[in-house]
Specification:
This protein has about 375 residues and is of the alpha/beta class. The protein has 2 domains: about 180 residues, Rossmann fold (3-Layer(aba) Sandwich), CATH 3.40.50; about 190 residues, Up-down Bundle (Glutathione S-transferase Yfyf (Class Pi), Chain A, domain 2), CATH 1.20.1050.90. It is about 40% helix and about 25% strand.
Length: about 375
């Protein structure tokens, strides 16, 4: 999968920008604040229906404008050529179109153009709380499994309704237990499917993580992970359902007291290790940075084996704190990804001009004050 053309209107600091990309490597260099990240954020927006930078759509429109628009022309193996468009205006909200036809459910777009993004924000994956790791895992699986995404959306709806019942019910505990029963059945069914799929994917993904960490660092220290859910070993989906039901019953009074659902995949944790060391609590800043890079590169190569279409890779300012040796290793690894890659950097120094001069499938762009120019 690749994006051939991108057009932006009032998107962040790009008032009106149109650009044609190369099918393999696209290097985007320029000073900080010039608009480099905005270009690849727009690509991510079209692929995932949201920004990986801004927390809300209302902060994306350029300066005093109340709307923005993104148009992207894509090409892939399954869908030969198609267009994705996104518009947002305050008051009307966000609208997405595929080939000028409106997309009713934004979730239908997820996975149409698989994408992997690596940015400085990924340090949160290893250094902050479990929400960051669950979000990474859910996003990764959702792009390869529409069924998982549907289960995830439905589970969140069920949990909201169940929480509302816990918060608003005024009767006895026995009556509350009776009213919760139909919600418990739905929660257990959807939640068990989510847990089972997470365990299945993580069991395969660990090999990709270990290989990429060793490739990037050259160290023998082996990364690993432990999936903490309703049980240490989730097992079959039937076993998960049985344990889920047991935990729901065991924690009923506690949930009634706290007025919220305390059991389920929304409480899961993924613990990362380097050797015997738990990374979150004892890892250095450098180890966190390299581990998070290995996670995203592992995701890329996991997708290469799982998907019919090659994913798009977005690297946002990830070379700034790396030595030249590691930059060379990562650059060499990227050449093994035959799909489309975008790299943003404030410095031109780490990159070999020969990769872009007179090479049809690579391009080097420079950005200054949101003006994009082709260098090679």
């Amino acid at each position: 999968m690749r994006i051939n053309r991108l057009k932006l209107l009032n998107f962040r600091n790009h008032e009106e920008t149109e650009i044609e990309f190369a099918p393999h490597l696209n290097l985007i260099t320029g000073p900080n604040g010039s608009g480099k990240t905005n270009l690849i954020d727009a690509i991510h927006y079209l692929c995932m229906t949201r920004s990986f930078v801004a927390s809300s759509d209302q902060y994306i429109a350029h300066h005093d404008h109340k709307y923005f628009m993104i148009n992207g022309h894509f090409e892939g193996e399954i869908r030969q050529e198609f267009k994705i468009s996104c518009s947002y205006s305050r008051g009307e909200g966000k609208k997405i179109f595929v080939n000028d036809s409106p997309v009713d459910r934004f979730s239908d777009l997820i996975g149409m153009v698989p994408v992997v993004v690596l940015s400085p924000e990924d340090l949160k994956l290893t250094s902050e709380g479990p929400v960051e790791r669950r979000s990474f895992l859910d996003s990764m699986i959702s792009q390869i499994s529409p069924a998982y995404l549907r289960d995830l959306i439905e589970y969140r709806k069920i949990r909201r309704q169940r929480n509302r019942l816990l918060q608003e019910f005024n009767g006895s505990l026995s009556m509350l237990q009776t009213h919760l029963e139909p919600w418990n059945i739905q929660l257990i069914n959807k939640g068990s499917s989510i847990i089972h799929k997470r365990a299945e994917v993580l069991d395969r993904f660990i090999d990709y993580l270990a290989l990429q960490y060793q490739t990037i660092t050259g160290l023998k220290l082996k990364p690993s992970l432990r999936y903490q859910s309703i049980s240490e070993q989730p097992g079959s989906i039937e076993e998960i359902r049985e344990e889920f039901a047991r935990q729901i019953e065991k924690n009923f009074e506690k949930e009634a007291e706290r007025e919220q659902t305390l059991i389920g995949p929304h409480r899961d944790e993924i613990v990362f290790y380097l050797g015997d060391m738990e990374l979150r609590n004892f890892g250095s800043q450098g180890q966190h940075r390299l581990f998070s890079m290995a996670l995203k590169m592992g995701q890329l190569f996991y997708y290469l084996d799982e998907l019919d279409d090659l994913p798009i890779l977005l690297l946002d300012d990830v070379f700034g704190n790396l030595d030249q040796q590691k930059i060379d290793i990562i650059t060499e690894t990227l050449t093994k990804h035959s799909g489309q890659t975008f790299i943003t950097s404030a410095s031109e120094r780490p990159f070999d001009k020969k990769q872009y001069q007179h090479v049809e499938h690579n391009r080097w762009f420079t950005v200054l004050n949101s003006n994009v120019k082709l260098k090679f």
